[in-house]
Input
Amino acid sequence: MFPIRDHNPSGRIPYVTYILMAANIGIFLSYVPILSDERALYSLYNTYALVPARIGQGDGFAGLLTSQFLHGGWMHLAGNMLFLWIYGDNIEDEMGHIPYLVFYLAAGVAAGLTQVAFEPTSRIPMVGASGAIAGVMGAYLLLFPKAKIDILIIFVVFFRIFPIPAWIILMLWFAMQFVGGIGSDPNTGGTAFWAHAGGFVAGLLGALPVWLKRGGITFWRRTDGHPPHPEATYPRINASSIPKVKRR
Output
């Protein structure tokens, strides 16, 4: 089960979101040839990833930014870019191009610092744009809680798309990160749950001035919790192509 699209595309071209996606994809493609070379990959991560223990020693602060553009594999990259594509355009539209870029990078830094705060002795490199994207998701929750998000559910050969309000999927996602963080081991690696949770909270708080400037509760009433754009129409793909045979 995962989100595939929202029902309110941006009212203008989200240049920054596209540039961020291109940068993440381009940088990943630049080091695809060394993915199977553990020594070369370690050297890359040691230079550009975020290592919490190094931050505690007063070193490696550049990793708070550079780690946001590194990914551990194809699925890691694809998942992050899908989430950025779904949620990023509307937040960029509401904030403006440059403020959105600053917001995105700041959320990523906040996410990294949260991971450092909860796992200060970890020497496992942290990479990925998910902390910054979590910030975008936090902003989406505040600004557009009732926006429709299409969720694709796959069970063996059965699949179906269900539209659900954004607040449900986003709160569920945040709860999963929080619970995952409580049960995580700083010495085994895996998902940086605390970075996700920290980025999400930072994004929600970072979007608060925008929400208040738009009128706060009045903004929700005016837009009914949706992005202020016409709803998109998508072709029906849930309908079965198998002919129905009536009972006699």
